[in-house]
Amino acid sequence: MNFDVIVLGSGVAGSAIAAILAKHGVSTVLIDRAEHPRFALGESMIPGTSYLLRIMADRYGIPEFDAMSTFLKLRRNVTSSSGIKRNFSFVHHDPDRPFDPAESTMLVVPHYPHGPEAHLYRQDIDAYLYRVAVKYGAEVLQNTAVTEVAANSDGVRVELGSGQVIDGKYLLDCTGAFSLVAKTFGLRETPTRMRTNSSCVFTHMVGVRPFDALYPAERHGLPQALAQGTLHHIFDGGWLWVIPFDNYDAATNDACSVGLHLDQRGESSFDQSQPPEQVFAEFLDRFPEIKDQFTHARPVRPWVRIPRTQYSSTRILGDRYCLVGQAAGAVDALFSRGLYITMEAVNALGYRLIEAVRADDFDPARFAEVERLTQGLLDAHDRVVHGSYIAFRSFELWNAWYRVWALGGSFSSLRFRQAHLKYSLSGDRGHLDALDTHPFVGTICADLPAYQDLFHTAYDIMLSVEQGEIDTDKAVSMLYALYEGKDWIPPIYQLSDPQRRYPSRADYRSTVESIMWGYAEAPEDIRRLYFDFPAAPLFLGIRDAEAAEQHWLSTLGEAAAYPGGER
After folding, report:
1. Lowest-confidence pick of 247-256, 376-385, 545-554
2. In the beta sheet, which residues pair with residue 31?
3. From CA 170, how far away is CA 293, in angstroms rounded?
């Protein structure tokens, strides 16, 4: 058998890139040692991931990507098993102090003009993308082990467990941490360069109570119910994710994803001799407020332990091969950027590989930007996560630090929004292609110099805390000073005010206010980077989206789904 491209792994990365290639006439085979449906992590969407799905739908002519890009579209077009995500929330716990629900922060996900994000029930999502790849012409081999891979400047070859050999022109490894390509060519970095050092145990459970039922909105004071987003319980030494799939009235899936990350360098690190369920039980005993949320919870699948979640590669490219997504490296589930990093790589790789096949030219230089982008994304994610583990030691420090992440993510969303809107108005694909250019490659905010300065200064402050050079109080003061007097930071965010524990409500009114600031008051570079398009189509889109969202949410009964609701 002979193909243009051989893809190993039919998860999100493998199925998405196989669909793109097959759609554009590249003969592609998609090989996986298992079959769908199956469990996978990477369950929480972020605006960047959603925008990339819409952009890839238009860039590559695959509307099925757009059909899964928001909660409402996902429910209509793909599955009802996923949950709604309206926010990121972070609740701080200190076992040596009385619990205070007001020691919490939130980043509300922008709802306009595209609607809320989703909690992905990955077994359904991955199976959907797999079917999309098949639809566009990819050949597939499920339940098929690959035992050997070989690649050189002339081509690639994989040998299957059956002894069958498949030849190709290029090889993509989208399998994950145990990449056979990485092992064969000695690509893993040992030890990893990642400064974050965390372990993880995780499962799916039923019977997990909404934290709002225990500590409602009048106690935590945040603008939305915690249960209608990705909840992070944070504490000195780690964090716990709670990702419900049943957080609206019409939900059909009563499962909840639960995972505990612990800093291996602290007192909370795993005792490797204990089973993961015992680690989780002992963690709950330390934090009775969290334990109350799990009084009636029961796992519905075996617990999984990852001794260390971080790994990296010295390089991801070679003669005729590339590591994609989780095969290239991973940091930590914090901030839900793993799926985003994967989609950035797939988007950047797709057209380069299509053109390489057409030209029959697979010089690694063609793909150098994919290497630079992937490594940069991993390094930037490591810095923000490492800084966050330092910040977890006190609520005051976390409250000051998380604003750096929230601000960068907001500008990143604006970057995607402008490019996609310009494309929608003009039909010029160049606006989408230009997103491959990253002046500050891989960073949370890839094109704003002022943000780079702020981030690096903030991260240096966190390193000084870690090294004992400054105390927490001094660090908090220094971090808030970074937000003061910056005319490029939207004033609606009130980042320099510690009492404002969420940058924006991201509702209709605050969205319009932010846009008006961008057009009328923002500095020239902000207007050029993020508001350089006619205002009317955006306002009309937001108006129509508000009406559509209210219709769909009322139909689904979402607004009354959990205690807390809208404030």
Report:
1. 545-554
2. 8, 141
3. 49
